[in-house]
Amino acid sequence: MLERGMSAAMVIHKLIQDDPDHHLRQIGVVDAQGNAASYTGKVCYDWAGGQSGLHFAAQGNILVDEKTVAAMSKTFTETRGTLAERLLAALEKGQEAGGDKRGMQSASLLVVKDKGGYGGFNDRYIDLRVEDHKEPIEELKRIYRIHQLYFAKPSPEKIVPIQGDVQATLVAQLNRLQYLNSQSPTDDVLQLALTKYIHSENFEMREQANGLIDLDVLDYMKKQS
Hints:
- By secondary structure, this protein is α+β, with helices and mostly antiparallel strands.
- The strands form four sheets. A two-stranded antiparallel ribbon has the order 1-2. Strands 3-4 form a two-stranded antiparallel ribbon.
- The chain contains seven helices and eight strands, in the order αββββααββαβααβα.
């Protein structure tokens, strides 16, 4: 229906019109132009409802109250960053506002992009889930950061020359992680050790030209036990 040019609101109207159990349903639709609509049937478990705006539809049921959806909508609208970052921020604020009245258990994040998956083989740009956890949103944020470390392109401002304090820190960390056995390696030896580390950790997406390093890689080194 969307491909035929129907708006999000028209799609929901059509679905409800043709469904005898529409009073049990809940759905959100966003079309390719960012127009959105949300529907909650009258028999969905309280609190149930939704809001929609430009580029988003947010809804929930068995929530503490309406503040959860309102917080998600407000946060998504006001947050700057990637789609994934805005969705995570909305989840977090929705939980802070009350969330599911039964508590927390799981969380997931799916962002699709044409050939955005690994190697361009599929459209699953980001596909993460936490099935069962005491703090599922925090855990989802943690694995999202790991995903970005391995698959996101490096930020240009974080690519720096290996010299001065950066070089000293790199030497110390590579020695600590047993990729080096020298406190004063030559540039070639240091580069070889760094390359071996990057390939061992599967950080090829963040590998730089000789003499340069992505600071996100160095930060990861410092956090390794």
